[in-house]
Design brief:
Elements lengths: L2 H15 L4 E2 L1 H8 L4 H13 L4 E4 L2 E3 L5 H8 L3 E3 L1 H7 L10 E5 L3 E5 L2 E7 L2 H5 L4 E4 L2 E4 L1 H11 L13 H7 L6 H13 L1
Parallel strand pairs: 5-7
Antiparallel strand pairs: 1-3, 2-3, 4-5, 6-7, 8-9
């Protein structure tokens, strides 16, 4: 076996053995300790051509089975999954849309395969404050209370189906990071009426 074939096997083994399902060049570099991005890019393109991995978008690669939530985090960084997507998953709102929503530093909508990714712009101070954001299975995702506050921060008119599932103590712990008297008043009113 020549040296390049051995290196290719090491790279694909590193990808397959990683708990992550989605990768950028920098991620593969960190997995393999290889710092030649041109070489990594060539290997990844070879793996795509031979059906070992997928290229979801320029610079975004994945295993054949991948997490859409993980894709959402990798397209734009920093970002975290939040808003309607988290609230639907936790039964706080009912919605037919399969759009995966994230808090981000810009506003964009992207479609990859059959999945729509919607990014909503937040101020930097809010985006980097991870109070109420957890890392679960390689995904940065808001807890329901943070997603609730994020959504009201963007849309004060939003109508919620079931606020009983939200922890009021956690909401009150997270609320100060928004530095918004209007949001604080709205939360008091919503939770009092619920």
């Amino acid at each position: 076996m020549d040296d390049s074939s051995h290196k290719n096997k090491i790279t694909i083994a590193a990808i397959n053995n990683s708990p992550d399902t989605v990768f950028r060049l920098i991620d593969v570099s960190m997995l393999t300790s290889e710092d030649n991005f041109n070489s990594i890019n060539q290997k990844l393109n070879y793996y795509v051509r031979t059906g070992k991995i997928l290229c979801l978008r320029r610079g975004i690669y994945s295993k054949l089975k991948y997490s859409c939530e993980e894709v959402a985090n990798k397209i734009y960084t920093p970002s975290y999954v939040s808003l309607e997507y988290v609230l639907v998953k936790n039964g706080i709102i009912s919605q037919d849309s399969e759009t995966l929503t994230s808090a981000c530093y810009l506003s964009r909508q992207i479609k990859i395969n059959d999945q729509t990714f919607s990014y909503h712009k937040f101020k930097r101070e809010l985006l980097v404050n991870l109070l109420g954001v957890q890392r679960i299975d390689s995904v940065n995702i808001a807890n329901p209370e943070r997603a609730f506050l994020d959504l009201l921060y963007l849309n004060k008119e939003y109508d919620f189906n079931n606020l009983d599932k939200l922890n009021r103590t956690v909401i009150n712990q997270i609320l100060p990071i928004y530095k918004s008297n209007k949001l604080s008043s709205l939360i008091k009113k919503l939770l009092k009426n619920d």
